[in-house]
Amino acid sequence: MKELKKLFNFKNKVVFISGCNGQIGQSLVNLFLKLNAKVYGVDKKKTNIKKNNFSFIQGNICNQNEIIKIFNGIVKREKKIDIIINNAATAIFGKLINRTDKEIEDVFKTNVASIINIIKNYTIIFDNKKFKKGKIINIGSIYGFLSPDFKIYSNGNRLSSEIYGASKSSVIQLTKYFAVLLAKKNINVNCISPGGILNKKLQSKKFIKNYIKRVPKNRMGKVEDLHTAIIYLASDFSDYTTGQNIIVDGGLSLS
């Protein structure tokens, strides 16, 4: 038991989370705070989270100079960054026939380019400061490898777009690429692909009902369903796990 507690002890860990103000982001911030880690959250919008060991940074992760400044500030204060969680993402829900160039650019810039930007600059500071070990966790989606079932959508529902799926497919591929590239540096890179996460404020009752029909576990996901996979990939237990995409979808992708 002492060994288990040691492996899941994040007391001296420094965690960086992008998109910390969203539904999943806030949940991950609170998770690592409960695990006694020091957490730095970045988002465009201000957060209401005010807790010990949590520092909020308002910034644009798509801007390379901002990321460099953010990383330098964290390392100056903490001397290291142990865990990177690339959680920030944006989605477009309009129909294909109305797709604009700006929508395409915004989705790929936030969901793909920002991850390259973060990992690139984390690698540079990792080398310069001679860090010993790093864990990177990307948040993908089942729609990165699976087409949506369009029968569960109707007018007024948030239709999963082609560019969102394409961007999340890129996240999964980037995970594999960086896992191989950074393995010799002792940096593990993995991905978690959630299924639909319940959000009654944004999802209609009809959508929720139709979605649940597709799920063998007979419910939509909760943000807490992601926690076990996150803890595993962030912990020393996953030192020999890299380049993997852990699917947390209640079995939907199997049905």
The total of beta strands comes to: 7
Strand adjacency order, main sheet: 3-2-1-4-5-6-7
Specify the structural class. Answer: alpha/beta
Q: Low-confidence stretches at least 5 residues in length (pLDDT < 50)?
A: none
Topology as a string of helices (H) and strands (E): HEHEEHEHEHEHHE
Total tally of structural domains: 1
Structure description:
- The chain has 255 residues and is of the alpha/beta class.
- The chain has a single domain, classed as NAD(P)-binding Rossmann-like Domain (Rossmann fold, 3-Layer(aba) Sandwich).
- The chain has seven helices and seven strands.
- It has a seven-stranded parallel sheet with strand order 3-2-1-4-5-6-7, with helices on both faces.
Main features:
255 residues; alpha/beta; Rossmann fold; 7 helices; globular
Blueprint (SSEs and pairs):
Blueprint: H1 2-7, E1 14-18, H2 23-34, E2 38-43, E3 54-58, H3 64-78, E4 83-86, H4 101-128, E5 134-139, H5 162-182, E6 187-194, H6 205-213, H7 227-234, E7 245-248
Parallel strand pairs: 1-2, 1-4, 2-3, 4-5, 5-6, 6-7
Helix pairs in contact: 3-4, 4-5
Give the gist of this structure.
With 255 residues, the chain is α/β, with parallel strands linked by helices. It is built from 7 helices and 7 strands.
